[in-house]
Automatic annotation (TrEMBL):
Name assigned to this protein: Kinase
Keyword Manganese appears in the UniProt entry: no
GO molecular-function term, one example from the UniProt record: kinase activity
Keyword annotations: Kinase, Transferase
Protein species of origin: Streptomyces hoynatensis
Pfam family, one: APH_6_hur
GO biological process, one term: secondary metabolic process
Keyword check for Chloroplast: no
SUPFAM superfamilies: Protein kinase-like (PK-like)
Length: 300
């Protein structure tokens, strides 16, 4: 069958990845042949940095083939998934790092925690997160939160002129906040998902757990950093709610209490991550998304 690139991948890829994107159909076909996989369908609308294809192997077992962009090393994701050993996260079956390819157990990609009522979804998300926060292990390949956010900060500075003067001012404040968070970190680092949110936790038929995390961007650092993305989950619904600012602050307090992290650090990381994402969205021309993220940041 002809492999059509998913819409979100095409829309959000950066110019530096154009060569990879152009050769992606051929790369997927090569991996399919190498591992003797039969295609069922391409997952749509897909991710922003990877392509997922539902497949069956030579023995008829269902799986998902994921091919990631060059800036998302498959070997690092594989290392995290193997460290978790299926406890809280999807299991990896095979990996071809040079192709950015991972063969993963099949989950219900159409059903994430967002299908649940908000309160129930948050409880399930925290249950999954607790399983993921383990020791990273000796000689691990995972970058630290400090290293990761330093690279992010540089991207933010480059994007600031395109985002407008008001966004640039918010970014400067957020980067100062990031510096104080990194220098003042006291919690011993654990393995983090890195992009933990309700949409990254999918329904599973596995006997070990009904919900499993996918798509990690693994880091080592404090748990508050992982929770920070969860703070702004279902942002469209939040923006439309009366008293959105109060709801947001209450969510911070509830999440911090639930896993015993300092509420001020969770609030600060949530603010930093929202501002950075907002600036990058504005610079990329996604104005509605960027403005919504910056508005959220003001509630914190």
């Amino acid at each position: 069958m002809e492999l059509t690139l998913p819409r979100r991948l095409v829309e959000f890829q950066q110019p530096a990845a154009e060569g990879w994107l152009a050769g992606l159909p051929e790369l997927v076909e090569e991996v399919l042949g190498r591992w003797e996989l039969t295609v069922e369908r391409v997952v749509a609308p897909g991710g922003r940095h990877s392509m997922a294809v539902l497949v069956t192997d030579a023995e008829g077992r269902r799986a998902a083939l994921k091919i990631s962009a060059p800036d998302r090393p498959a070997a690092v994701e594989e290392a995290a998934l193997r460290r978790w050993q299926g406890l809280g996260a999807v299991r990896v079956l095979r990996c071809a790092p040079e192709a950015g390819a991972l063969l993963l157990e099949r989950l219900h990609g159409e059903t994430s925690l967002r299908a649940l009522p908000e309160a129930k979804a948050m409880l399930e998300a925290l249950s999954v997160a607790r399983r993921l926060w383990v020791e990273p292990g000796a000689g691990h390949p995972f970058p630290s939160v400090a290293e990761h956010t330093a690279r992010q900060a540089e991207l933010g500075r480059q994007a600031a002129p395109l985002a407008g003067p008001e966004a640039a001012g918010l970014l400067a404040e957020a980067l100062d906040l990031r510096d104080s968070l990194v220098s003042g970190a006291q919690e011993e680092g654990v393995l983090l998902h890195g992009d933990f949110r309700q949409g990254a936790v999918l329904a599973s038929d596995a006997e070990r757990a009904p919900w499993l995390a996918v798509g990690p961007e693994p880091l080592v650092g404090e748990r508050a950093f992982d929770l920070a993305r969860l703070v702004r989950d279902r942002l469209h619904d939040l923006v439309a709610s009366p008293g959105a600012a109060a709801i947001t602050r209450r969510r911070v307090a509830q999440l911090a209490e639930a896993v015993d992290v300092p509420a001020d650090r969770l609030r600060a990381w949530a603010l930093y991550r929202a501002v950075l994402s907002g600036v990058l969205s504005l610079a990329a021309g996604r104005r509605a998304e960027g403005e919504m993220l910056l508005e959220f940041a003001t509630w914190l």
